[in-house]
Design goal:
Layout lengths: L1 E4 L5 H10 L10 H10 L4 E6 L2 E10 L5 E9 L8 H14 L6 E6 L4 H5 L4 E11 L2 E9 L5
Parallel strand pairs: 4-5
Antiparallel strand pairs: 1-2, 2-3, 3-4, 5-7, 6-7
Helix pairs in contact: 1-2
Length: 150
Amino acid sequence: MNIRKFENTDRDLVLHLLRLNTPAYFSSSEEKDLIYYFDFHADNYYIVESEENIIGSAGFNLSTDGKTAHLSWDIVHPDYQGKRVGSELTRFRIQLIKEIGSVHTLAVRTSQFAYKFYEKFGLILRETVKDYWAEGFDLYQMDCDIDKTI
């Protein structure tokens, strides 16, 4: 398994991963949001490869004051879920974030389908909003002190 920076040539393959996870983890309406993310916010987005196949992707973004890092767009191929791909990618990003001296808080906006995954890294559920992403896809806002991540 290899983790590398996202390149624009990866767009279609990551969109394919998103579609493979729709509607289990994402609403079909979120595809346009991912495309927007690629266009304007993918500076810290990463790809997981295995045998030259893209099997996962995820990123992070910093708040304007640099004190909060937001995990973003975690997507793992269904055949590789439960096989530590997401965990390795999350640990990789947390390590990069810890190297940024200004960051104090790690946050994620996710859904009821994935929030338990982030709890394993120390993030704490702070707020839920029903049907936030789309009907049946609730917002689960989570965060924690970066020094308390696992």
